[in-house]
Amino acid sequence: MFTTERLVLRGFEDNDLDDLLALRNDARVVRMLSAQPVAPRPTKYKEYLKTLAENSTIGFTIIHKETGQFIGQCSIKVAEPVKNRDGSFGISMLPRFWGKGYGMEATWFTVDHAFKALGVQRVSLDVLEGNEAAIKLYKRIGFKEEGRKRRANWVDGHWEDSLSMGVLDDEWAEMYWKR
Asked: What is the DSSP string of 97-131?
């Protein structure tokens, strides 16, 4: 378990499944998270969520330090082949916690931990262009746009691109460790 100024980042527990299902059943979250259709997920979907959590190289349940409230989840999965040391980052949070800096706090800690503890040489992510707040956050902490898949997602009556972003270990070190 790790703590930041306002968060507890702990490993997945079975009792997180109800909160994770509620997160994945919130249309506002799914809209920002995936190119999959926005549709309610059945209770059986918890099995898939458990598998995702257990197969992450680093997987955190994000908890509010003061209140103990579930905020969301974030993870790093080191992609195959492992020799390339590329960690894929993902995060999702309940909308009531958006815009308060919790995403920044959890993202920064998780990426920093991946570089220090896993020795990855890069952290990558994909984000839909409609998720402007996330893109702004990622750029602010050092991610760079590395590619764009045009018209990757049909949503709300229009096409959106999917952006690939990444940050390298030496870039991260220069920004945060050599001060």
From this structure: GTTTTHHHHHHHHHHHHIIIII--SEEEEEEETT-
Site of tokens 């598998």 = 51
Token pair of 135 as six digits: 């893109």
3-state secondary structure (DSSP) of residue 161? strand
- Residue 49: partners with Cβ closer than 8 Å, 6 or more residues away: 17, 20, 21, 24
* pLDDT digits 0-9 by tens, 129-146: 999 999 999 999 999 999
Using a 10 angstrom Cβ sphere, with 0-12 exposed, 13-18 middle and 19 or more buried, the burial of residue 37 is exposed
Q: Above 80 in pLDDT, residue 179?
A: no
Residue 160, CA distances (Å) to 129, 138, 163 in order: 6, 18, 10
